[in-house]
Amino acid sequence: xxxxxxxxxxxxxxxxxxxxxxxxxxxxxxxxxxxxxxxxxxxxxxxxxxxxxxxxxxxxxxxxxxxxxxxxxxxxxxxxxxxxxxxxxxxxxxxxxxxxxxxxxxxxxxxxxxxxxxxxxxxxxxxxxxxxxxxxxxxxxxxxxxxxxxxxxxxxxxxxxxxxxxxxxxxxxxxxxxxxxxxxxxxxxxxxxxxxxxxxxxxxxxxxxxxxxxxxxxxxxxxxxxxxxxxxxxxxxxxxxxxxxxxxxxxxxxxxxxxxxxxxxxxxxxxxxxxxxxxxxxxxxxxxxxxxxxxxxxxxxxxxxxxxxxxxxxxxxxxxxxxxxxxxxxxxxxxxxxxxxxxxxxxxxxx
Length: 351
Ligand SMILES: NC(=O)c1ccc[n+]([C@@H]2O[C@H](COP(=O)([O-])OP(=O)(O)OC[C@H]3O[C@@H](n4cnc5c(N)ncnc54)[C@H](O)[C@@H]3O)[C@@H](O)[C@H]2O)c1
Description:
The chain is an alpha/beta fold. It has helices at 14-26, 41-51, 59-64, 80-89, 105-118, 132-140, 144-147, 160-167, 184-197, 203-207, 299-311, 320-350, and strands spanning 5-10, 31-37, 54-56, 70-73, 94-97, 122-124, 150-157, 217-223, 227-235, 238-246, 253-259, 264-268, 280-284, 289-292. The protein has 2 domains: 5-126, Rossmann fold; 129-317 and 326-350, Dihydrodipicolinate Reductase, domain 2 (2-Layer Sandwich), CATH 3.30.360. Nicotinamide-adenine-dinucleotide binds next to helix 1.
């Protein structure tokens, strides 16, 4: 039997606890959790205790641990770039960085440069991009990127805590501060955060349907309460609607659709945190409907399996330019959407 890859987690919050540790428990032929790191010592110790591993509170301690082959970055967004670069420079075998890869295109480009220099592959944990039900549709959609004219991403989810608590007993969770949504700058920053944190899952998929996006224009955007966004935009000559709301709903839904005159793609993803099989995609034409999925493995499992295959040299590492472009597109949408929130407020104030 081949030896497993040792995994070290940077950041041991709900995503490590409720998403990645359950995924690791199903992939013991490939991975062994070796180290849990968090700046909060109680969280690091508690999560490491549950996983039966070493723990630390400093980045250096995890990177110096020779049993850590793969670094999984699950800290808040602002730390992703510096930690991904440090993991590459430490000569690890691979990095799995939670989305977003970085907070700016410049940071993402630096990660790509260091990854290329060191030869350490970096994968981004945008799980839909690995989802077998999505990938099978992409392999069969023919000229949909050229012919599609209308794209819609629609997400209705309960708050993350609902699924986190169904997956595990979470040790410590950040409290959401009360916010004043009558303040336009608060609304603009929440829409920006919604794009960087949630729309970031589907924007790489949407980008794969766009021949270009240098014509990106956000026509209107606003915050949906209690948390969400509605963004109408044009890019690559296509109309794109992004709609997401996190409410107390009992029935989650995560759908991506692309319409051409002669073909429609409809993909239903399992919600974040849920380890219940892949997306189901349907490609419909006037004469047929082809269904792809569900597969047993969902995007989380698929991203870890792909990482193992990359380390073993069985598949090519991810295209770094493509990952940088995904991040650049995401930041451009987030910035333009935040500006559109400000414009809408000015228009309403003037009316
Ligand atoms: N793929 C998905 O489905 C999915 C879902 C939700 C969130 N995420 C992403 O996962 C990441 C983590 O999300 P979360 O909800 O667990 O975040 P969180 O902020 O609740 O927890 C992050 C943990 O990191 C720790 N931390 C803070 N600074 C650190 C540092 N410099 N080094 C090490 N640890 C540090 C915190 O103490 C906390 O325990 C985020 O980037 C988020 O975007 C992914």
